[in-house]
Design goal:
Elements: E1 7-12, E2 23-29, E3 36-44, E4 48-53, E5 59-64, E6 70-76, E7 82-89, E8 95-100, E9 106-111, E10 116-121, E11 133-136, E12 152-156, E13 164-168, E14 173-180, E15 185-188, E16 193-194, E17 201-206, E18 212-217, E19 222-229, E20 232-240, E21 249-255, E22 261-267, E23 271-276, E24 283-289, E25 295-301, E26 304-309, E27 314-320, E28 327-329, E29 334-335, E30 339-343
Antiparallel strand pairs: 1-2, 1-30, 2-3, 4-5, 5-6, 6-7, 8-9, 9-10, 10-11, 12-13, 13-14, 14-15, 14-16, 17-18, 18-19, 19-20, 21-22, 22-23, 23-24, 25-26, 26-27, 27-28, 27-29
Length: 344
């Protein structure tokens, strides 16, 4: 397993989604310098826009973001090669995110177009079985173009076993669910969190302490901090996602491993914003150019940050200063067609 973590897999949009990728790309990562060496396309599969890895088995999962969505599973070879294990229909359109339960027994898929959340059991080898649940969100938001219906954009299992969080851009909501592991079905947990109208919540990041999380609003360009309580999410603070002027459309969000800094990628202005988390309010300490105008996703690995710019066809490598949290670019951008997800 140790060797596999030196191989990075990159998902992207293929021709089915007007993209230029052919499938999932592998790259070798130098953990010392952070450098990426592309190894080419290792799985030809339609629009694998988000990827996840099993916590205990050499298995990689991808959503196929299509009008009839798919969940694809692959066995991972030590050299990063992928062997298909099968495809399951997700029960909804345009699945855009997935996550694995901490115990490795289930995978959860967010269907953006379908506004639904799908659950699949995983056997001892990590192979998905028949779907055990499909929960559809209902309603709409304030934006008639982007929020005409539910659009589930992310699912976040609790590493400590608490409720699963499902972020829905279309209904300005974060839903909480408990998983009945025996049946593979989701049980709603308390009232949903309703964000301010027009927020368009996209992704959230949990703090390592398990007591806090940060939610990015794709439509209103905000970052909102919440306390995670037994009764739900309680809003603490709300700040702008970027200090730049112009069109700002936040995408990715992550907390550094030491819990001191929050990172947000901003499409449009093409930046990664860095917030210090020492005080009550996140403090914008730096905002660095990501290398293109559309940084859709990024990943932290060791002392390095990898930013996928979907429209600029590149992945940019940064070294993160451990004291200031600020990323500095390393080397030249790595050419990758239509990258939408970096799995380190």
């Amino acid at each position: 397993m140790a060797g596999q973590h030196e191989v990075v897999h990159i998902g992207g949009y293929t021709a089915e989604s007007d993209g230029r990728a052919e499938g999932i790309v592998a790259a070798r990562r130098d953990p010392t310098t952070g450098a990426l060496t592309p190894l080419g396309t290792v799985a030809v599969t339609p629009s694998p826009s988000f990827l996840a890895r099993h916590p205990g088995q050499p298995v990689l999962y991808a959503v196929n973001e299509l009008p009839e969505g798919g969940l694809s599973a692959f066995r991972v070879a030590p050299d990063g090669g992928l062997t298909a294990l099968g495809v399951r229909p997700t029960g909804g359109a345009e699945p855009c995110h997935l996550a694995i339960a901490p115990d490795g027994r289930h995978v959860f898929v967010a269907n953006y177009g379908g506004g639904s959340l799908a659950v699949f059991p995983l056997d001892a080898d990590g192979v998905p079985g028949e779907r055990t649940d499909l929960v559809r969100h209902e309603g709409h938001g304030a934006d008639p173009e982007r929020q005409e219906a539910a659009h589930c954009h992310m699912v976040s299992p609790d590493p400590a076993g608490g409720p699963l969080l499902a972020v829905d851009l279309g209904t300005d909501s974060v839903y909480r669910y408990d998983l009945d592991a025996a049946s593979g079905r989701l049980v709603p947990r308390g009232p949903r969190l309703r964000t301010p109208a027009g927020t368009g919540p996209r992704h959230l990041a949990r703090h390592p302490d398990g007591r806090r999380c940060w939610l990015v609003g794709e439509l209103d360009a905000t970052v909102t901090g919440y306390d995670l309580t037994p009764d739900g999410l309680r809003q603490r603070v709300r700040v702008d996602a970027s200090g730049r002027t112009g069109h700002v459309q936040p995408a990715g969000v992550a907390v550094g491993p030491d819990g001191n800094f929050l990172y947000v990628s901003n499409r449009g202005v093409g930046t990664v914003a860095v917030f210090a988390l020492a005080g009550e309010t996140p403090e914008l300490v730096a905002e660095v150019d990501a290398g293109g105008g559309w940084p859709r996703h990024f990943a932290l690995a060791g002392s390095h940050l990898y930013v996928a710019d979907e429209r600029a066809d590149l992945v940019r490598v940064f070294r993160v200063d451990p004291g200031s949290g600020v990323p500095e670019p390393v080397g030249e951008p790595v050419p990758v067609a239509s990258p939408t997800c970096v799995l380190v």
